[in-house]
Amino acid sequence: MKDHRNHSTVGRSLVGLMLAFCLLAGLLAPDAAEAQVDGGVVSHGIAMQGMPKYGPDFEHLDYANPNAPVGGELRQAVVGSFDSLNPFIILGRTAAGARPYLFPQLMARTWDEPFSLYGYVAETIEVPEDRSWAIFQLNPDAVWDDGTPITVDDVIFTIETLREQGLPGFRRAYAQIAHVAQISEHGVRFDFNDEADRETVMLIAQMPIISEAYYTANTFDAISLDPPLGAGPYRIGSIDPGRSIVYERVADWWGADLPVMRGQYNFDRIRYDYYRDSSIALEAFLANEYNLRREFNAETWATGYQNFAAAQDGRATLATLPQGRPSGMRALVFNTRRDIFADPLVRAALIQMFDFEWVNRNLLFDQYERITGLFTNSFLAPEGLPTPAELALLGPYRDNLPEAVFGEPYQPPETDGSGNIRANLRAATALLTEAGFEVRNGAMVNAETGEPFEFEILLRNASDERIALAYADNLRRLGITANVRTVDSAQYTERTETYDYDMILHYWITTLSPGAEQYLYWGSDNVEIPGTRNYAGVDEPAVDAMVTSLQNARTRAELTAAARALDRVLMAGNYFIPLYYLNVDYWAWWGDFGRVTAFDPIYGSVLEAWWLEQ
Predict the structure, then answer these.
(1) Do residue 202 and residue 348 come from a single domain?
(2) What is the largest CA-CA distance in the chain?
(3) pTM value?
(4) End-to-end distance of the chain based on CA atoms, in angstroms?
(5) Is residue 233 part of a domain?
(6) Number of separate domains in the chain
(7) Is residue 117 part of a domain?
(8) Model confidence over 339-364: pLDDT tens digits?
(9) Residue 78, helix vs strand vs coil
(10) How far apart are CA 45 and CA 260, in angstroms?
(11) Burial 439-474 (b: 16+ CB within 10 A, else e)
């Protein structure tokens, strides 16, 4: 590593000397030193599709208040412990907040648009139409906490270090870099290999920057609680190993007046206290041991704050805040590799038997909404009949797709929540009869072989048992036996990686910029390859084509059409029983927190832009 780095440094120095010589000799105009060889476009920001929301002269983000008061302490809780301040390696348990508060990125993401980035350490980005390379011009005002500048050497050192010693995610993303070089005092160019796609440049632009000087003098790939050299909005204030960490605001932070940062990071101190388990952490909040809590458990939200006197007398606030994140697909998943689930009619019958309305009322405190597709709760969800753009994508596959693909968007079967599912039983029985099953002596069997209809629901989390058992009870009314089995994490992983299951409960996360990950979820090449996330065994050319269209989308309109078409094909295929999601975020706090509310909360409220009124 050391020799390689030294050679790289020498190479960069030679590049700088040659550029300087060319400029002095008049061989290059000053602007040519920024490498416009391939005709890229220079911009203050970049969007995954289309144009960024904010223009080059924007002063602050819509969800940030540039006049927000600065001061006070934000106190939060974390369950667990920590033993490291290095968020970039697989070893250790990193303290909460270390990465965003200490380490800057080339560009910063915004949270009121699907996927856009704006200048942070890099003032500008230059890319060609095919995004085969990118040039970043660094901000000359960007400095580390010791006052030394953030340099191109730091950027290249970061790439080399994270690609060789960083977390697997860094290694995968940065493996798509074919070449990186300094092209001017503040300019760095990345060239990508053939495995790169349109998202690669976005991943590189979000690269955190680490100090070459600091990590040359200190071991990078070691667990350590020594405060690293940072350049973010906060520095380490104090540490009680494993129990608490306090970050202190950098009063003269170089990035405070960047448009993408103005009005954010308003607390003088941010403190995280660690607790053994979530119940203790809740009790600590109710006793005002910390002042802000994000509640992720709907049952706890419905029952754990009932006797919270401070919320009743105004000293504390309980709030459900809107968000527009896609629901993703949380579902009971049919393994269509199994003969018992190979027939779509069988799968359609079993979908009829999940009584969401009863489950929500009796087990989930009426906190949830039903998932109707991959992108429920977002603008990517299908609406009405397919648009001309969707039909253009779906048309070549029409003869082999269910007619439901070309109708109204999928809606799962409904009940009245009373537990009376006679209509669903009749519909399921009719479908099973059509698929070649019949009831004998109270048991559903294959009409030809007499084999009973029996399968296993494999779970990893005991908390999911009540959902699976409620479903199994309904199936029993059909004469179908569903055995619910919960195994430890290691066994679950082994069985799911080899597709050794009948049905599982799984959650696929989706974003507002879906892309290559969708092929991991549904791609036909992954049906037999162990370890992918195509747990349903989807093997459909139309799905592959829609995912390819997602990856190739240049505009938001193209992405929306491809996402909606993909959703229609998958939901019409009856690959899973969609479950439920939350369409709000739960927050609780003591005192008077302020936040901008007049913006489109696509990803929910942005804590970095909150402040304390007093």
Answers:
(1) no
(2) 95
(3) 0.86
(4) 50
(5) no
(6) 2
(7) yes
(8) 999 999 999 999 999 999 999 999 99
(9) strand
(10) 10
(11) beeeebbeeeeeeebebebbbbeeebbebbebbbeb
